[in-house]
Amino acid sequence: MELIDVGFWSVLPPIIAIALALITKEVIFSLIIGVMSGAVIYTVAGGLGIVSVFQITSEMMVGQIEGKAAFVIFTMLLGALVGVIVLAGGSKAYGNWAAKALKTKAAAGAATGALGVLIFIDDYFNCLTVGTVMRPVTDKFKISREKLAYIVDATAAPVCIIAPVSSWAASVILYMEDAGIAQAGLTGMQAFIQTIPWNLYALLTIFMVFWITIRKKSDFGPMAAAEQKAEEASSGSESSTSELYYDGLKVSEKGTVWDMVIPIIALVVISILAMLMYGGLWDGSGMTVFEAFGNTDATLALALSTFCSLIIAFFMFVPRKLLSFKDFFVGVDKGLRNMVPAMTILTLAWTLCAICSDLLGTGTYLATLVDAESLFVTFIPAILFLIACGISFATGTSWGTFGMLIPIATAVCIPIAAAAGNTNLLTVSLAAVLGGSVFGDHCSPISDTTILSSTGADCNHLQHVSTQIPYAVTVAAVCFVGYIIAGLTSRLAFGVSLAISVVISFVLLILALIVLPKAVKKEQKAKVEA
């Protein structure tokens, strides 16, 4: 199948998918209709029969899965690894240890955030682990369940999106490569690494987590009320870790801290070594470490590392009778099932991306609509950030948002950057898309990680959403200003533009975090007196 120039019609599939997602709140349905509409447009433009609509849809979908088999294997095996680690009791043992080792409320909050940062491989793993592990600890120090749920949520997606060794990184790298990032002289891995310091939403959110956990009286809005209520509660509310369950299966009582730490360390170390191997560091070509990372096949490396880590977990858990042979593979099965929804969204998003780029030329058409010398160029990162925030919040998924916006951002920014001599524009715009997409995944009430965070923290879901949104919106507002500054300074040297944008963004957030608790408290006091 050859590309057909259909002009404006090439934009309709992503518009239809986005509009339906906003209206129905069902991202899978919306992506299916978007894919089918693209197939219909191609069929009509090419003068093909109606059967071609279904033929194109199925062939493009199968082709995407075939081309990304390593990523599919990695994602499914990662789910399996998560399942067996939780069942073996490693997560529970860490929680018991932490409850004894920590002495203050600030230390307990910071340790919860640190564990969230440590588990950067996958957001599902993070949500399944941190809340369950740290709940007894935070209860002991009277940290509210709402605060715990926020910390869990804020160190899930925001951490995964800046971790080169993660399921998120592998997905984003594939999206970037499919969108034609090679035209900018970059591999997917190189482009992803360059976006990390520009991902303002992720960096500022992580900073805010530790700010509000370490500083006293730093909460504001509904979260401050939840914290006050927890402080006034009796100390007898501490939860017990004597029995924990994962998908109805009893977690082992014999697990140790190392049963969680060693498989994670093994996964990280093997992933890094495998990336260097596939990147050609040891093939005699004289590559540097950074060049090898840039030249690597990340999905193959991650698939290899998860397989090896699962084998390591088997020999750690089964011979020591933490899990029986049967229960180990029951855990594998449970973990695999948990990854099916994510893989469904990914497959559909990949297919929509392929139809738009390979058959309809959507990106090429959009690039012709923007004047490289116009003032609009300056605001592209901020505009993309807002659009990504809106889509991801309405649909509850960042991965679907990646699939819709990364091809558009790449197609628009590459020719503009070349024409205007603006080398930073592409990197900043992609980072804005990633950060905006994470905003919705972080705080949308229909986001899977938001729901899992509520569950792990044993917090009422609506309470978690209502207490978290003011914090997420505060960071997003600062990021919007930051991306405007980034656009204004994007013609400067990379380091200069980055320093100006990041420093101003952090200063603005710190000022907001100092002023808001006082302002909100003053307003509430005035209402009471009135």
Oligomer: single chain
Order of helices and strands: HHHHHHHHHHHHHEEHHHHHHHHHHHH
**How many domains make up the coordinates?**
1
Tally the helices. 25
Average pLDDT over all residues: 82
**Unreliable runs, pLDDT <50, ≥5 residues?**
235-243
Q: Measured on Cα atoms, how large is the radius of gyration?
A: 23 Å
Roughly what fraction of the amino acids lie in strands? under 5%
Anisotropy-based shape: globular
Description:
With 530 residues, this protein is an all-alpha fold. The protein has helices spanning 12-24, 27-45, 51-67, 69-87, 90-101, 105-118, 123-140, 145-154, 157-160, 167-178, 188-195, 200-214, 222-232, 258-278, 289-295, 298-317, 325-338, 340-360, 362-367, 380-395, 398-420, 425-443, 448-457, 461-488, 494-529, and strands at 245-246, 249-250. It has one domain. Strands 1-2 form a two-stranded antiparallel sheet. Helix 3 (51-67) packs across helix 18 (340-360), helix 10 packs across helix 21 (398-420) and helix 14 crosses helix 15 (289-295). It is globular.
Topology, element by element:
Layout lengths: L11 H13 L2 H19 L5 H17 L1 H19 L2 H12 L3 H14 L4 H18 L4 H10 L2 H4 L6 H12 L9 H8 L4 H15 L7 H11 L12 E2 L2 E2 L7 H21 L10 H7 L2 H20 L7 H14 L1 H21 L1 H6 L12 H16 L2 H23 L4 H19 L4 H10 L3 H28 L5 H36 L1
Antiparallel strand pairs: 1-2
Helix pairs in contact: 1-2, 2-3, 2-18, 3-18, 4-16, 4-17, 5-7, 5-14, 6-7, 6-8, 6-12, 7-8, 7-23, 8-23, 8-24, 10-11, 10-21, 11-22, 12-24, 12-25, 14-15, 14-16, 18-21, 20-21, 20-22, 20-24, 21-22, 22-24, 24-25
